[in-house]
Specification:
Helix content is about 45%, strand content about 20%. The chain has ten helices and eleven strands.
């Protein structure tokens, strides 16, 4: 077997003291031998830095004002050197064995430039929820095509890993996007190389505030349409039309779900 690649994990953070220790432990408990772990904190004031100090012997961290999540990630990319890159937001978690599984794919398949795995959704207490969304995305994850990706984002960010050389080719995250910078990166990467699909759960994506999350998703859909147009509108006008239709479909679904929650006892 070829040598295991070095892996850099970047965690952008801001005032997530409630969750960040779970995030940190999920990375460190991977026990991956060639791991570089950096937390880019935006100057948190809620106790996050105290938690980071407790783990300072096992990770690196910077805590200072930044230009937001996308800016923090770009700085993290520049300050790390691993051959493989992943990022894990400060309220998400890796699942046991994720990095070993990812490393094996890259080690055994030198032509694979990036990959993604499955990613269940969890709530504040780490309970799984919204399984219908997970199943819907997994359906398309198993049937990847670049054309489909240009219509809809079905790739779960916490479960994505890519080679540094691919990032060097496509360039850094576009900081003009607040929600869809990951999708914009996937679209640019997908234009160069098709990702591999690792059919196992690699990470968990946490939804904390239902009402805020729903409104953010609607904003994300709008940004994703803009990102797809910027990457491929001249070459795929029909796909852009389909993406626009899909945006209205998804936005309507989330608005309807929000209304249903309001009608339930206690607003849940």
């Amino acid at each position: 077997m070829a040598e295991l690649p070095s892996i850099s994990i970047i965690t952008p953070s801001y005032n997530h003291a409630e969750f960040i220790e779970r995030t940190i432990r999920s990375v460190l408990e991977q026990s991956y031998p060639r791991l570089e772990f950096v937390v880019m904190d935006g100057g948190s004031s809620d106790g996050t830095v105290d938690i980071l100090r407790r783990y300072a012997d096992r990770l690196r961290y910077v805590s200072e004002k930044d230009g937001g999540q996308a800016d923090a990630l770009n700085r993290g990319f520049r300050e790390t050197s691993g051959q493989i890159i992943g990022w894990l937001n400060s309220d998400d978690e890796y699942l046991p064995g994720a990095l070993d599984a990812v490393a094996r794919v890259f080690s055994e398949n030198p032509d694979v430039e990036w990959l993604y795995g499955r990613c269940p959704i969890i709530d504040r207490a780490s309970r799984r929820q919204k399984s219908w969304i997970t199943r819907y995305k997994e359906f398309w994850q198993r049937r990847y095509s670049y054309r489909r990706l240009l219509i809809e984002n079905f790739i779960p960010q916490p479960a994505v890993f890519f080679r540094r050389r691919l990032l060097d080719r496509v360039g850094p995250i576009d900081t003009r996007y607040h929600n869809a910078f990951d999708y914009h990166l996937w679209a640019r990467m997908g234009a160069i190389a098709a990702p591999a699909f690792l059919d196992r759960e690699l990470a968990c994506f946490r939804i904390i505030d239902e009402s805020k999350t729903s409104s953010n998703f609607v904003r994300s859909f709008t940004e994703e349409l803009d990102a797809a147009r910027r990457v491929a509108a001249g070459r795929h006008p029909l796909l852009m039309t389909l993406h626009a239709i899909n945006r209205y479909k998804l936005s309507g679904t989330y608005f309807a779900l929000a209304k249903l929650r309001q009608l339930r006892p206690g607003g849940r």
